[in-house]
């Protein structure tokens, strides 16, 4: 196919008929997130506490993969109503009590997802809402980046309109070769999600950056089978870019480390005496401490941004 805007190629590669997120193995076949395995069990505890703080009894897990976090929440918190949202059909092993909504993909949300009173968790969703990619050319002009099916890039026309206005306001670049990942599509997706929640809390969790620390050459990255690989929009790999969290206008943005510590989740090493009195309990406590350490590592998962907006009934 001829070169086209990255945003269009990206969408097809992830959400088209043969897109990455529709593959049988699911995202967990290629990478691990905080929602998977033992990490997910600890994360589910934090999500349950956030739901309690928000005064809601429903949790909506948006872009939930194959429902990994929902399994943990179902086991830990049978008092919560749980809803999963993703682009695939309902997973066969999902507990019957969990509701499932199928999403069109990207920024598009199912019509049924509205008038909520819930904790809405968009975990690693905005980073895979495709956005316009632009680059400063040799004359200092910001131009849209085009890409073909092999991943070869060329520069298109000058960036204009709403995308240019967003770049001027949030991510100014003037040096040839610098890139901008225009966050307007993410901002609009976030606002749409907020409008669907009447009371409770809406949260977006992603790697992010702010105006004072934008990456000069962008963050567009591909993952395949656990490895960083070439950014090719072929449907066989994940394509992701970090989120400009400050342009979202959330009420509060914390790192995952800060939030988990606030909720009382810390990596405490168990007393050695426990090894003699309760060896299995000691091993379990060590495992939990290791898991919490991974979730709160400031140079890893603990560096994720949690952008949170609170809702009062009757106001989005």
From TrEMBL:
Pfam families: Methyltransf_28. InterPro entries: NDUFAF7, NDUFAF7_sf, SAM-dependent_MTases_sf. Keywords: Methyltransferase, Transferase. It comes from the Bacteria. GO terms for biological process: methylation. GO terms for molecular function: methyltransferase activity. This is SAM-dependent methyltransferase. It comes from Knoellia locipacati.
